[in-house]
Amino acid sequence: MINSLARWTPQWEDGVVNWGADNGVRWNDTFDGFVHGLRAVHAYLGKGQEKEGDARVDLCVVFVSEAPWETIRPPLGASPDPYFFDIPPPTKEAYIAAARWPGFVKPVLDANKRDMDMDADSDSQESFQTPSEETRMHLSRLFNPSLSLALDALHPRLQNATDWAKANEPPPNLLDNPPTTTKTAVPSDEKDADIIFLPRLSKFILLASFLASTNPPKSDLRIFGRGLDERKKRKRRASGKPTKTKGEVTKVAQHLLGPTSFTVDRMLAIPGALLEENDVDSRIHGHASEFSIPGEETNMEISRVAVYAAVVELTSMRLLTRTSAVNQLDDPPTFRAAVGMRWRCVWQRSWMLVLGIFFGRLCSCLNWSSRRILSAACH
């Protein structure tokens, strides 16, 4: 460090001598020697600069942060309040407008540019004419399927807006093609729906692992629970304590942080609720008289050895990731889902599952904007 501060490069011809070694002083023996070396470098670099004044430069510091100023402000007024701009996060409409506006308006601009190139030699200066009703309906029919694609890809932040717009850029001269020969955008979920060849039980287990990885454990009873709650609901009372002025750290959604680990007992309890809602009629038909308690047959099904064999098979296929040690026998094994939102949407549409009941219960705890986004993603 002393050599770099003094701009000294040891040479092999000189015996790789460090800076200041002519006086017989070594700066790297002790900490005191290192401090004396720093002072010597400062004195060496300051020679001939006594007459030069300190530079007084006006600085303007721009600090960009995703956290609001109320959250990161130092306590007790340690720093003055800056002049800041509070930019709120984009809404769902802003996401769709930023993603689809270049692709929607590009065919219109291409047609206008072609007309302007043809009339470049003429003296006519006509203003830009709006598209006709037929052209507008043609564009709406072509680009309406891309709205759901944009919501599925941009809201979970699986892809940024620029790359998504380039991947879904319409072909040139789109308006010149007849409506019957133009192919509309097909969601990637439907393209990949025919490549999934897993057993039905394995799909339920994999869907349960996705729900367990993206939802906290305390929400399982609220989403998948059945029956009336016998406990009386307590009314909320307004507290007389003043609200805290100090901001808190903003919590990031779990689907943006990534999947979390869960125990195998929790993973097998969620498929029980899914099977009870979607598959109990096909399994219990013919021997319904043997089961008198609701959920008895489903509890027996999820306790079979085939369920644990399906978990092992999904782990070997790298659709599930085991996070606990294999030789650990004291605690139950823990797993983590290796699939994302796109696979969940594919399986939900291919099975025709009644998952709207569960997501409807989850929406009751969310605000209005989150309900709209979640309902659009499910349907």
The largest β sheet comes out as: 3 strands, antiparallel
Q: Which class of secondary structure composition applies to the elements?
A: mainly alpha
- CATH domain topology of the largest domain: Arc Repressor Mutant, subunit A
How much of the sequence is in beta strands? under 5%
What is the oligomeric state here? single chain
User: Total strand count, please?
Assistant: 3
The largest sheet has its strands arranged as 1-3-2
- Helix count, DSSP H or I runs of 4 or more residues: 18
Work out the helicity level: 40-55%
CATH class of the largest domain: Mainly Alpha
Q: How far apart are the first and last residues' alpha carbons, in Å?
A: 62 Å
Instruction: Round the mean pLDDT to the nearest integer and report it.
Output: 70
**Spatial shape:** flat
Uncertain stretches: 186-195, 356-379
Order of helices and strands: HHHHHHHHHHHEHHHHEEHHH
Domain Origin recognition complex subunit 5 C-terminal: 198-343
Pfam families: ORC5_C
GO cellular component, one term: nuclear origin of replication recognition complex
GO molecular function: DNA replication origin binding
Task: Give structural attributes.
379 residues, mainly alpha, Arc Repressor Mutant, subunit A, 3-stranded antiparallel sheet, 18 helices, disordered C terminus, ORC5, DNA replication origin binding, ORC5_C
Give a nutshell description of this structure.
With 379 residues, the protein is mainly alpha-helical. It has 18 helices and 3 strands.
